[in-house]
Specification:
The complex is a heterodimer of chains A (113) and B (117).
Chain A (H helix, E strand, L loop, with lengths): L2 E3 L4 E5 L4 E3 L2 E3 L5 E8 L6 E7 L7 E2 L2 E6 L4 E6 L8 E9 L4 E3 L3 E6 L1
Chain B lengths: L3 E4 L2 E4 L5 E7 L6 E7 L5 E8 L5 E2 L8 E7 L2 E6 L8 E8 L9 E2 L3 E5 L1
Parallel strand pairs in B: 2-11
Antiparallel strand pairs in B: 1-3, 3-8, 4-5, 4-9, 5-6, 7-8, 9-10, 9-11
Classes of the chains: A mainly beta (113), B mainly beta (117).
């Protein structure tokens, strides 16, 4: 089984500033993937970024990047130049190929104008 | 990215009736579908996993006779809440994956808000 822990229930950031959301995980799998999903008020789950565990290089998608520390089992999300549209619930998740996703409890991000 | 369509987006039903929620993969073959339940401001709780053509695997504590899941084709899975009660009111989300594809991303439906009165 896998577990995902998000220790920050709520975070806030000033518009245009940078914020980092924390996530730790535990898995016995050797081949796994890590994800950050965003859930805005519409409640549609949107993939923000994905990291293959076998890749050492941190994934980057425009303003979103991760800090993947495999030995520490840490997978934090950094949002640069925060925008009002970034306000949402953010879920960290892990999955091994073909299997179910394990989600953290989520972090509610508020962007302050 | 791939699209998963979930219908209806919201439904109100009377206590004791049954409600069916559909989840369709529009442009890929969903070999595996997952059904989640989400309470307000909480995470997604996996209810069951279904593979095309076989019986669903339910998580511990989920009543299989109450939450009927059918995954008869590679593009359609349904969740039927039978004899619904007010405590079944929740937000239900499906997600789909094609494990034959290298990418392991799961694609999510828009969710269904069920209210039982």
């Amino acid at each position: 089984a896998q577990t995902v822990t998000q220790s920050q229930p709520e975070m806030s950031v000033q518009e245009a500033e940078t914020v980092t959301l924390s996530c730790t995980y535990d898995t016995s799998e050797s081949d796994y993937y890590l994800f950050w999903y965003k859930q805005p008020p519409s409640r549609q789950m949107i993939l923000v970024i994905r990291q293959e565990a076998y890749k050492q290089q941190n994934a980057t998608e425009n303003r979103f990047s991760v800090n993947f520390q495999k030995a520490a089992k840490s997978f934090s999300l950094k949002i640069s130049d925060s925008q009002l549209g970034d306000a949402a619930m953010y879920f960290c998740a892990s999955a091994s190929k073909g299997n179910q996703f394990y989600f953290g409890t989520g972090t509610s991000l508020t962007v302050i104008p | 990215g791939a699209v998963v369509s979930q219908h209806p987006s919201w439904v109100i039903c009377k206590s004791g009736t049954s409600v069916k929620i559909e989840c369709r993969s529009l442009d890929f073959q969903a070999t595996t579908m997952f059904w989640y339940r989400q309470f307000p401001k909480q995470s997604l709780m996996l209810m069951a996993t279904s593979n095309e053509g076989s019986k669903a695997t339910y998580e511990q504590g989920v009543e299989k006779d109450k939450f009927l899941i059918n995954h008869a084709s590679l593009t359609l899975s349904t969740l039927t809440v039978t004899s619904a009660h007010p405590e079944d009111s929740s937000f239900y989300i499906c997600s789909a994956r094609d494990y034959r594809v290298v990418s392991t991303e799961a694609f999510f439906g828009q969710g269904t808000r069920l209210t039982v009165v």
